[in-house]
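**User:** Here is a favour to ask of a fellow structure person. Please take any protein you like and set down a full record of it. No explanation is needed for now; the record alone will do.

**Assistant:**
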Amino acid sequence: MSDIVWNSANGSVERDESSVPWTQRLAAVALILLILYSTHSFQFLFAETVEAGLTEESTARSSPVYMGLFFIQFSMFGLLLFFHILRNGITVPLIIAGTLIVYLCGSVLWSLNPRHSLFPTFLLSYLVMAAYTASIFYPPRQLLRLYFHVCIFILISSFIVFFVNPEIAGKARFDGGWFTEIEFSGVMSSKNYAGAVFASAAILALNGRRIGISSLTLRFLVFASSTVAIALSNSATAVVMLFAIGGISIMLRGRRPGYGVFLRGFLLCLIGLIGLVPFLSAGSVLQFLGRDASFTGRVGLWQHGISAISDHPILGHGYKAFFETGRYSPVWELWEKSEYFFPRNFHNSAVEIIVALGLVGTVVFFAVAIKAASVVRNQSMSMDTRVAMGLVISIFFISSMMEFSMFHHNYIATFVLFYCLFASMWKYNEQ
């Protein structure tokens, strides 16, 4: 059990809110819903395809069942947050969370299209609130176990759907794949979400003992199944996650002196690479992975994003405003130059955020990321928990170099980032 209540006078622990039975049960249900929603799992049951400029997108906003489940999830976290504030008042981490939410919501005011920015910004702000609340009522070790089990459920469901109806679980890849001609996404809406979930399952299986998963058979089956799923997804990013973080996991076996410092350095390097990748060349490596030297069109995409910074350098275009499809939207010029696909994001956190939220937002992002990485230095957590938490967030740091931004609304990486931010501030006193 973990004590997790902030004492504003000295930063110590006074009460253990996670020991109140109904709060942890409610938090568990809310987190399961959040993980399923933010990995876009089973969205095909509710979604419809709508036109968005030159592209089509799948959305479930028109489904009363889907939105009703979201409202239930939102209400659960809201109730837990209200309970926490009643018992503890205003805490320093709550002030930080509130400031971030006010800033994100305020960005709607300078958006090129406030109406287009409003709903995604609300979802992004909600993830900040949910991450803060979860860090209080569901400590890191319990969260990692829950996330692992939900990933297993998604993995099993994905293979079942693949065998029952392959058209739902994958789509044809435009230039072929490694083993099949499809991109396996399972019950998720794209291989980008799927790759992160499959990699999470594999890495947590490798490190299962750190979070109290002792069954070697379970861990082996999950790791093997996740590896197969990654291969079928044809996601080069997921392969990099598996090999890079899997290698780090093996290196961190045992309790060698200084490996906490090593993990912290590894995370800081990944954060730096998020900003550097758009300027790097890795043609030979990509060809080895069966990809072209332009990162499947990402180089041109990043160059266009970088050139767009000068239009609104300080505050940005507004969250998601660059990609709205009105007649005068800047996205049309980007789509005219696109070689492979019509993107709806810049496939890199640094580029995405500086275009959307400007230099101010970029500074906020890197400050949040660096502080979140310091969760591995929180001495009130066991070393095993810190290592496992560091390995999981590193999955999403790598993903955010090439796929979705870590300030992406309704995305599991955003939740993990902010959860680690707040978890780095609490004293958990793990036993």
Summary: Confidence is low (pLDDT under 50) at residues 5-15. The CA atoms of residues 271 and 397 lie 7 Å apart. The first helix runs from residue 21 to 38.
